[in-house]
Design brief:
Length: 318
């Protein structure tokens, strides 16, 4: 296994990508297309995947389906929207499995999330720990809906011999992310804050929490490559972690982004805002063994590219 998608596995194959116009989906679609697949992008405006009929229409004719559509956001979004995060993601996941099976799809790849892990999990997170407790409360509705993808994959494999998998993805970042300050994930929010502070000449940036938690950050192109590899060769419904295996504190992340954006002022930490899970990074040995995946883009390189892309196409300042 080379760790790169095999054009021989994809050339001419009809593939559907739900959420294919989104952050991760765009990268997956590009890599599949470069490998020769005939890719059809499913957008929420055209197919409400919470409805079985719309879901069936979306997957008809596909040999392989990548389910990347999700209702998702950062801590603020999760705290304001627990019910839609649970309901919408459960409905979409359940419909994708049943309608893909009925439509004769040969392989379904669903993106699970590190948020599926229990709040108290020994680090690095081993796949064997994913069932051993309730997720971190602020993102539990989303995390449990994502954990159900693993249940569905196993159940449909045992009941119908339906081939599927749900790789467990680390925190993603990269160009074209959602940069909304309230609803985005931490890297996108920080990049926007620091760039706007530099542009305005501010001498202070305020970040959520204490800065003490640690996270693992996976560049979006690496994540997309892992999912394509899973579509080629992953033949188990067991959880498989996709990440870098490296942890970074939120405080160190902020210092790096400040340096990359040219911000020379003071960073203030608002401890009234939630930190989320104390520590979160993955044991990635199973992905290396089963699909030959190792992350190629280091955090400094990925952040530099993300800052460059944001500066080239920033979100209008509010």
């Amino acid at each position: 296994m080379s760790g790169a998608p095999d054009p021989g596995a994809w050339s001419g194959r009809p593939v559907v990508v739900t959420g294919g116009a989104g952050f991760l989906g765009t990268a997956v679609v590009r890599q599949l297309s470069e490998a020769g697949a005939e890719v059809r992008v499913i957008r929420s405006a055209e197919h409400d995947l919470r409805e079985a009929a719309a879901c069936r229409e979306a997957v008809d004719g596909a040999e392989v389906v990548f389910h990347l559509a999700a209702r998702v956001g950062g801590i603020g979004y999760n705290r304001r929207n627990p019910a839609p995060l649970a309901y919408d993601n459960l409905e979409m996941g359940s419909n994708l499995f049943e309608q893909s099976r009925l439509a004769g799809v040969s392989k379904l790849v669903c993106a699970c999330s590190v948020c599926a892990y229990p709040h108290h999990t020994p680090v690095p997170f081993s796949e064997d720990e994913i069932w051993n407790g309730y997720p971190e409360p602020s993102n539990a509705p989303y995390g449990l809906a994502k954990r159900m993808l693993l249940v569905l994959s196993d159940a449909y494999r045992r009941q119908y011999d339906f081939d599927s998998c749900a790789p467990v993805m680390a925190n993603l970042y990269g160009p074209n992310d959602n940069y909304d300050l309230e609803d985005s994930h931490v890297i996108a929010a920080m990049i926007r804050k620091y760039v706007e502070a530099v542009d305005r000449g501010d001498d202070q940036v305020t970040n959520w929490g204490t800065g003490s938690p640690t996270r693992e950050f996976l560049y979006v192109e690496d994540a997309a490559r892992a999912l394509v590899l899973a579509g080629e060769t992953l033949e188990t419904s067991d959880p498989v972690n996709i990440g870098t295996g490296t942890e970074t504190s939120i405080r160190d992340l902020a210092e790096t982004i400040a340096e990359l954006t040219g911000f020379e002022g003071e960073t203030v930490w608002d401890s009234s805002r939630p930190d989320g899970q104390p520590s979160r990074y993955l044991d990635v040995s199973r992905a290396r063994e089963l699909i030959g995946f190792e992350a190629q883009v280091g955090l400094a390189e990925g952040l530099e590219e993300t800052v460059r892309a944001y500066r080239a196409d920033p979100v209008p300042a509010q």
